[in-house]
């Protein structure tokens, strides 16, 4: 028999999606968020068809489609010459091949759409400025006077709930950071296509750029080696840190270097990974999203995997199995999926950052692959229908 209520720790994308997914099954949700206000840091986000399928099932997609951009293609471009190497078609092609759209948008846009849907649900209630750290059952009972048969940890890579769970995975700094800045549409250089996601590939680092309709501009992210500034998503760069970043692009095309040099108020955040471990305690607690499996962004699937997690967890818990078995099935199913996505990310990292003869071989192989053939490589990822 399905449970009647759930406590969700964290009101980010994973937590809000989980609340909607549980409410979809008639399960009431209390969401507990440590922040006093939901202010989303960061800028751009890619939502691939496997995630937009879930958002469609939960009724959130129309609000996003009204404001996001559906790029015509995902292009791979040489960072040292700006020569196009290959592309995967998106736009209408994505809808036809994978049954759902591929969109790019501001993080705040997705959070706002999810939050509005949660606030409109009579089964969901958000508690802001409410940290839940040690002894989650006791803490929650003290806040609401209720006990919950299930507590979902959706509180990110530095999860408090995970820290209180035996044999849980641990976060580890990857020694890489993601630099982020935006440029206005009026400042877009001719070589930066306005209708696509562009991944510029170069020695030991890469840059991704795509349009953001909400700001009439572009989101630019550079992945490079760096030192962790601590638990933050919005570190301000010192002059020395900017020089360190630019030093890693000395072999790149001068036009990209100038774009980075002219960046106004760039910020960066450390890229942490969460390794292997238990996602649930076998009884009444479970982790989803970055709390369970934070990964490097080389497959652009961090948000999408959190959205999938939330939907699959609610479906399993609302099914006919006992809660213990539902949690075990969820972990088994999702760890296999995450492992495959991680493997794709590792492959992309190797290919994107290749140097010397390997880079030349990569460029030749990519140039020989037609777009339809490259798209077929993503059927298992983008065509996945979470259930």
From TrEMBL:
Transmembrane as UniProt keyword: no
Keywords: FAD, Flavoprotein, Monooxygenase, Oxidoreductase
Matches recorded under Gene3D superfamilies: FAD/NAD(P)-binding domain
Domain of life: Bacteria
Record domain FAD-binding: where: 5-341
Segments crossing the lipid bilayer: none
Cofactors required: FAD
Stored Pfam families: FAD_binding_3
SUPFAM superfamilies referenced in this protein's UniProt entry, alphabetically: FAD-linked reductases, C-terminal domain, FAD/NAD(P)-binding domain
GO MF term (any one): monooxygenase activity
PANTHER family reported for this sequence: GERANYLGERANYL DIPHOSPHATE REDUCTASE, MONOOXYGENASE
Name recorded for this polypeptide: Salicylate 1-monooxygenase
Organism name: Neorhizobium galegae bv. orientalis str. HAMBI 540
Lineage start: Bacteria, Pseudomonadati, Pseudomonadota, Alphaproteobacteria, Hyphomicrobiales
